[in-house]
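Lecture notes, continued. The same structure-token format from the folding unit now serves as the input rather than the output. Read the line below as a description of shape only.
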């Protein structure tokens, strides 16, 4: 290896070391600028720490107030408990109260003022003693013994699961078919299914339907004076200037003599009825022939 190549290699190594050192400085400056500019904000961190400290102070004050409130509640509960205990003791020692003749131990004549317990005893009510409960003796009779020894008084065991039995050999029907026939729904007859008063209900329903279809709901009053002042309105058939038709009142057949073949009536083939020939001759009404 010649001296020129060694010199070039050393020069190249020196330049690369210088380049790397300068690159590290540039990256260090740029990384610091980027962190301070975009990632780390001093003023924002300052505001955040200030808000955290204020929140901590508020929480600390709230906790102190809560602790004081709990302490006051505990003191109040202790005072109430002590007051109840004093009241109970006063009711229990009510017999030590002073009377008109004999002063009590809390109202000594050698003292200027009575003891505060004397006033408490005056306000308290005497403690009443509870009567001991008398246990009833159990009466042993035949009915109680039978009820005790009956099968219902003993605890029952749970329902056992069904046993898988083999099908019996022989001309027996299937169990499911037998159960279906046994528990089939009831099919009552028409007499059992229909109600007894079905006819009355049907008539009432028919009357309701007829009343619903009725157009005129006015009540017919033939024997009252309701129709006296009502003007009669003749029908078009009677009020016509051509007069009423004779069909239906005088005859029931249209006759046209111009179409007759002869002037004689048709000859009857069958004989006449004797009952019709005797009409007006055998029956009479009040001596007159009908």
């Amino acid at each position: 290896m010649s001296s020129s190549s060694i010199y070039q290699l050393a020069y190249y190594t020196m330049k690369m070391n210088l380049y790397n050192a300068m690159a590290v400085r540039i990256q260090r400056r740029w990384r610091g600028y980027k962190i301070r500019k975009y990632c780390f904000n001093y003023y924002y961190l300052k505001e955040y720490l200030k808000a955290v400290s204020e929140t901590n102070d508020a929480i600390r004050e709230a906790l102190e107030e809560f602790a004081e409130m709990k302490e006051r509640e505990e003191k109040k509960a202790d005072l109430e408990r002590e007051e109840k205990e004093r009241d109970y003791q006063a009711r229990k020692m009510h017999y030590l109260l002073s009377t008109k003749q004999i002063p009590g131990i809390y109202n000594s004549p050698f003292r200027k003022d009575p003891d505060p317990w004397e006033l408490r005893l005056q306000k308290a009510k005497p403690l009443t003693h509870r009567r001991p409960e008398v246990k009833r003796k159990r009466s042993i009779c035949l009915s109680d013994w039978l009820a005790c020894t009956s099968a219902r008084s003993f605890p029952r065991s749970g329902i056992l699961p069904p046993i898988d039995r083999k099908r019996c050999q022989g001309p027996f029907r299937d169990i499911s078919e037998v159960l279906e026939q046994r528990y089939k729904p009831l099919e009552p007859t028409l007499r059992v299914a229909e109600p007894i008063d079905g006819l009355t209900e049907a008539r009432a329903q028919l009357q309701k339907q007829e009343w619903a279809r009725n157009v005129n709901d006015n009540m017919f009053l033939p024997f009252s004076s309701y129709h006296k002042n009502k003007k009669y309105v003749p029908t078009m058939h009677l009020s016509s200037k051509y007069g009423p038709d004779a069909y239906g009142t005088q005859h029931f057949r249209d006759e046209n003599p111009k179409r007759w073949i002869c002037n004689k009536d048709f000859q009857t083939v069958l004989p006449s009825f004797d009952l019709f020939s005797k009409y007006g001759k055998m029956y009479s009404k009040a001596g007159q022939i009908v």
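Point for the exam: Residues 82 and 254 are 126 Å apart (CA to CA).
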